[in-house]
Amino acid sequence: MKGTKFFSVIMTTLLFSTVTVKAAEIPRESAPQNATEESVVITENIIGDILETVEQGDLGYTEAAGYANARVRKAVIAGETGGYGYGLLSAITRNAIRTARDMHLRPEAYKEAEAEMKILLADIIEEAQNGLCYDGAVKKAYARIYEQYGYTVTDIIGIDKCYLDIPTIDSIYFYCARKLVSTQ
User: Fold this and answer.
1) pLDDT tens, 89-98?
2) DSSP symbol at 151
3) Residue 11 scores a pLDDT above 70
């Protein structure tokens, strides 16, 4: 009986050690502006499996964010984050989970928004492909999106945004704009 138990433990260990974990990639368009590629990859390594579960629809935002932020916190405390702090890595985590959950719930809306943004931002996308820096392309794209709703972005320079009557625009459009002007 002891031999059988030992054999079962060995086989289970071998089985789990040879199975690779499928982990989702963080959409670079969802990362905060101050995130580096390295910080996104580190976060991806910490929460990739949770993000995969969200993409499959098996985990909602709040629960996934709780699990993921706990992992990020533990990794930061253990010094496993390459010097990046909880503030940045948790922001990357929350944005990635929010985007993945929204994409799962509204896939058609993302397809439609991307098609719409390809037309609206065609000249800016071309400029980005021809060397316009990412930040400049994003700024131009955001301005164009706001202009579609009758708002001029130059009106907000030097004014606290909480006092402005800025139209509500679905974040999908800004996500698609960042995705489309990215040259990576």
Assistant:
1) 999 999 999 9
2) -
3) no
